[in-house]
Design goal:
- The complex is a heterodimer of chains A (393) and B (59).
- By secondary structure, chain A is α+β, with helices and mostly antiparallel strands.
- In chain A, 51% of the residues lie in helices and 12% in strands.
- Chain A contains 11 helices and 8 strands.
- In chain A, strand 3 and strand 4 form a beta hairpin.
- The longest helix of chain A is centred in the first third of the chain and has 33 residues.
- Chain B is mostly helical.
- Chain B contains 3 helices and no strands.
- Classes of the chains: A alpha+beta (393), B mainly alpha (59).
- Chains A and B meet through helix 5, helix 6, helix 7, helix 10 and helix 11 of A and helix 2 and helix 3 of B.
Chain lengths: 393, 59
């Protein structure tokens, strides 16, 4: 590569890194405890004793209570509210029912109740203002990590910081070549200047963990754009699936029909699959007239790829079922790849270790930038020939 | 100063680690059991390489 080429890539690397470093450090520090969200919840919350342990609430096993019965219990606890979501578990009979004051209520106004579908008992209820202790700390970290308490603009901003991180990774790989012309892979010049030592660490940690950093970066960006992606699905695919209903007034919650009838119709259309959640009419994931029952695929890989079955919420008649489009499936696959929650505790520990790698790379990058500003061209190692072996700029 | 290295020499290890990393991240998505264990091994590679480089730099 020519000297001017190296110089241009070095500028890209410097500015894409500098712009995002503070936010990336925040994302790493808040992300570290979030990796262990489940474990922390498990340690700090009482574990429920289920009536039928090991039977998933998404199952059709005899003994599981009807969905209409479960919904009536949830609404009895929240008089005047309407149902928004009902979510299932494949491993235990636990399920959650989300309610709110209106069909299009914002997340901050929602209340989530957990039930045991085998006994009908309430396990717990969470609303935005009722969390305390460790739960509140984790919630705070999650909000900071997702949108910095700024809602959609905050999410999109962090998405752009993620794009900057990806650009910094790509330019870092390009610059890796001129820096390593005279060094063997894995060389750490610990006996020379502090600058050479931290440069070698920066390059080694960055290049060895590149795949992970790139995947977590790109999937973080995709997650950050979840809201516009969901809106695009609703405006395009969902609108096309419910075309006959376009122009009708929203269905009054008092006229919602049986969930069990709707579920039976959906299961008949997609036999063999487990439902993951039901979105009620009027929310982000359904039309104004349908129960949108989201089914998982039946293999470990396709389990994350959802197919909604739309059932008329008043009559229980099946309307349509169509797999989510590729751009929504990209979010579905981005979640595990960003959270690291899909391969047991060892994977989470590796996720944490690689987060520490990232913090190290961010820290050494900042150090190298500051050290060079203090001692520019006069440093002995920065002669014309050494320009390629040292940070090029 | 030693000789200049070609791009294929410079990127041999990085490319191998990159492919291993991506394969590890993806394989655990496709199922449990041995697939998870393969992912652990693949994602532990960066840690092993850095520890090895650190040890070598002391000699």
């Amino acid at each position: 590569m020519s000297r001017s080429g190296i110089k241009a890539w070095a500028l890209v690397h410097k500015w894409t890194s500098l712009v995002a470093t503070a936010f990336l450090l925040m994302l790493c520090l808040t992300g570290l405890p979030l990796i262990f969200h489940d474990e922390i919840d498990h340690l700090t919350e009482d574990q429920p004793v289920f009536g039928m342990p090991g039977v998933g609430s998404s199952d059709t096993a005899p003994g599981l209570l009807p969905l209409d019965d479960m919904l009536a219990r949830a609404l009895a606890n929240r008089p005047g509210e309407v149902p928004l979501y009902m979510a299932f578990d494949n491993d235990q009979p636990s399920m959650t029912i989300t309610t709110g004051p209106r069909p299009d209520a914002p997340a901050s106004a929602m209340t989530i109740q957990s039930f045991d579908r085998s006994t009908g008992e309430l396990i717990g209820a969470v609303s935005e203002d009722s969390v305390s202790g460790v739960g509140a700390v984790m919630h705070f970290l999650l909000e900071l990590h997702t949108d910095m308490f700024l809602g959609l603009p905050g999410m999109l901003f962090l998405g752009v910081m993620g794009l900057s991180f990806v650009a910094a990774l790509v330019s870092g790989v390009v610059l890796y070549a001129p820096f390593m012309r005279k060094l063997d892979f894995g060389t750490l010049r610990t006996q020379r200047s502090a600058r050479a030592k931290w440069l070698d660490y920066h390059n080694l940690l960055g290049i060895t963990a590149l795949a992970w950093m790139l995947v977590v970066g790109v999937t973080g960006v995709i997650n950050a754009f979840a809201v516009p992606i969901e809106k695009a699905w609703k405006a395009n695919e969902l609108a096309a699936m419910t075309r006959e209903y376009a122009g009708r007034a929203a269905l009054d919650p008092a006229r919602y029909g049986s969930l069990d009838t709707a579920m039976a119709a959906a299961r008949a259309a997609l036999p063999g699959n487990n439902p993951q959640f039901i979105a009620f009419p009027g929310g982000t994931f359904s039309s104004n007239h349908h129960y949108a029952i989201f089914f998982q695929g039946d293999t470990p890989l396709t389990e994350r790829l959802l197919t909604p079955a739309l059932v008329d919420a008043e009559t229980g008649a099946f309307t349509a079922a169509r797999p989510m489009p590729w751009y929504y499936q990209a979010i579905s696959l981005s979640r595990p790849l960003h959270f690291g929650d899909y391969g047991g505790l060892p994977l989470k520990l590796l996720w944490a270790a690689l987060t520490l790698f990232t913090i190290h790379v961010l820290g050494t990058g900042l150090y190298l930038w500051l050290a060079k500003r203090k001692a520019p061209a006069s440093a002995p190692a920065a002669g014309p020939r050494a320009a390629i072996a040292e940070p090029a700029e | 100063m030693s000789r200049q290295r070609t791009l294929s020499v410079i990127f041999a290890w990085p490319l191998a680690l990159f492919v291993l990393g991506i394969a590890g991240l993806v394989i655990a998505l496709t199922g449990d059991g041995w697939r998870d264990a393969a992912a652990w091994a693949a994602l532990a590679a960066p840690l092993i390489v850095v520890v090895a480089a650190k040890r070598r730099s002391r000699h």
